[in-house]
Amino acid sequence: MARSSTGWFWLCLACCCAFSSVLADNTPWNTFVIHADKSKLPEDFSNHLDWYSATLSSIVEEPYLKNGYERIIYSYENVFHGFAAKLSEREAEKLQNQRGILAIFPETVYQLHTTRSPEFLGLERGNGGAGDVWASVKSRRDVIIGVLDTGIWPESPSFNDSGMAARPARWRGACETGRGFNVGHCNKKIVGARIFFNGYEAATGSINEKEEFKSPRDQDGHGTHTAATVAGVPVRGANLLGYASGTAKGMAPGARVAVYKVCWVNGCFSSDILSAIDRAVADGVDVLSISLGGSVSAYYRDSLSVAAFGAMEKGVFVSCSAGNGGPGPGSLTNVAPWIATIGASTMDRDFPSIVKLGNGRIFSGVSLYRGRRVLSFDKQYPVVYMGDNISSPTPSALCLPGSLDAHAVAGKIVLCDRGMNPRVEKGEVVKEAGGIGMILSNTESNGEELVADCHLLPATSVGETAGNAIKRYLRTSPRPTATLSFEGTKLGIRPSPVVAAFSSRGPNFVTPEILKPDMVAPGVNILAAWSGQAGPTTLRQDHRRVKYNILSGTSMSCPHVSGIAALLKSVHSKWSPAAIKSALMTTAYSHDNTHNPMKDAASNTSSTPFQHGAGHIDPSKALDPGLVYDIGPEDYFNLLCSIKLTPAELRIFAKSSNLSCNHGWNSPGDLNYPAISVAFPERPATSVITVKRTVTNVGSPASRYHIAIAPIRGVTITVKPRTLQFTNKYQKLSYQVTFATVALQPEPQFGVLTWTDGVHNVRSPVV
What we know:
Elements: E1 30-36, H1 48-57, H2 68-71, E2 72-76, E3 82-87, H3 89-95, E4 101-106, E5 109-112, H4 117-120, H5 130-135, E6 144-149, E7 190-195, H6 198-204, H7 222-231, E8 235-240, E9 243-248, E10 256-261, E11 263-264, E12 267-269, H8 270-283, E13 287-290, E14 292-293, H9 303-313, E15 317-321, E16 340-345, E17 349-350, E18 352-357, E19 362-366, E20 381-385, H10 406-409, E21 413-417, H11 423-432, E22 437-441, E23 459-462, H12 464-476, E24 481-486, E25 490-491, E26 498-499, E27 519-522, E28 526-529, E29 548-551, H13 554-571, H14 577-586, E30 599-600, E31 605-606, H15 609-612, H16 619-622, E32 627-628, H17 633-642, H18 647-654, E33 688-697, E34 703-710, E35 715-720, E36 723-726, E37 732-741, E38 751-756, E39 761-766
Parallel strand pairs: 6-10, 6-13, 7-10, 13-15, 15-16, 16-27, 20-21, 21-22, 22-23, 26-30
Antiparallel strand pairs: 1-3, 1-4, 2-3, 5-12, 5-14, 8-9, 11-12, 17-25, 18-19, 18-24, 20-24, 28-29, 30-31, 32-33, 33-37, 34-36, 34-38, 35-37, 38-39
């Protein structure tokens, strides 16, 4: 997540650290995830685990253990077939040639992508608004949401189960115990809690149980925050040190939460994540909310992608964060088409602060500072910037640890450039050097995006333009001064929503014909429950303890969509994961509250589908979308065939099912996706591309839809037929869209196709 409160930078390691065995020193073992063909089980084995163990025993090398059971850390049975084991590189090569082994990949480390949102999304009741629509709808299913994260702080009021009915009889989960977590911490809200650490310990050694909870208890705070965002019950008076005071409530407050702790101090490991998804599906979850990611790779090499495919086959909706790699193009993660990939946007709430310079100029910023140290707004204080080049900041300009000269900054406000280390850590560096306050300036990569932080000293964040103006003042004034003030919470911010600069964006380099991200949701300055073990910044020096914290990141936007998906599932219990995603995408909007096109915070210009996908979610409209684009496992498998996966790679997804390639597919663009992305080659052999789509009527049985086309520069667009006449509910009708090039364009062009019956507007972005 994009939060200043951790030192975890958004990156992915290609493989895990070497495992130090307790049985032998310096063993050359790493963890590998092995994909196996379940149907190849020899007749002389009664179960797959025995077969896997025997296969391992036949290839392990002396002087290490010959017993394959000792090497296996997980066996996967539900969403994925195979196992995870500790192997040397040479052993992995030998195993690749064994009967029934499809592929072997090294362990991958994933990282976390680190309230007003219910009102902003129209989920509150009253005044005839969208919330009244939801309040009048009767749920048909008791929905269970699985959250893969850092665990949970069960004492939070957000997880109170008062008034809830007994757990659903279909639930097959468990409440695992350990230090700080017992069976009593599960209840009718937290229906299950499990931990997955074998892969983590294989890479890093045994967990230090004195410093880390080897139990579902959350000491980081991230997991508690995401779980409360997705399904927390209403809690009045929730706030962070007085900021954002109000009722904190999750998107689906009536839903159950099942906790799967897969992330530890040093990251989240793919073998653990695979096992958690495998177990969650077997337990009976309806939705999986996963606010973490790794680097982008081919679908068959991405453990999360493979596991999510299996979950989708079982009818589970999988929502993942898009990543915090923005504003660079092609920075997305979790891009598989069967995953809902969620970007982040702002809400109409902010936490303004003021910088007043000695020359009288005033600049606006944001901050969540509330502490004993106070700067008088009627007094000016010396201010200093330790950088010497605006375009190439030095360590002291970035306020990196140990970079500031105490003699130069003591008693002064220090201007620090954003980047390299966490934002709140910069304030702590200033504080330790004797500074009395901080102005945190955005650089070009952050633009005008402002993310509020709960600093340890008086501090405010300003945009790049303001930061550069303050730097010019510091260079030209012989005795520069400034002061800071903090204005609390402000509602009704315009424009909003705005796409966050940190939110990862397209194009989707794995499959350009599949538009990603799918949509954006609130992910900036989100208030939700917090761990009692961590301060709001998670810095070791932060001894404050709060019940609620404000964080930003696609980690925060993901559970918003997971919760709305759970609401849709509770009402439309027979809808497939693809139908739910379609409803969210085709009803999303791409304008802000000033009725202008939604903006990108990085450039302060209109955002495009590469930044916002189909647009910003609109829960009330998603409840009744009119039409949906449905997709089944066979369709997704045909997409994999169209991108030329080998038979062995395809069997990773087919497992033992009857999935097979339909050779009528010519392109990944044939997938019945709610968005349309057409990629013409730079020197086209053809100037015409036709794609087909099929819509299912989920609205009135008798309905007539007409097409509206927003033109795209450089191509002509023809839709046949231009009218769809439905006579039954759930009837399917198809149409074709033909794109003919008029003139090749130097950059991607965007448009919209909308089917409308006068009530519903079924909107598909076109790239």
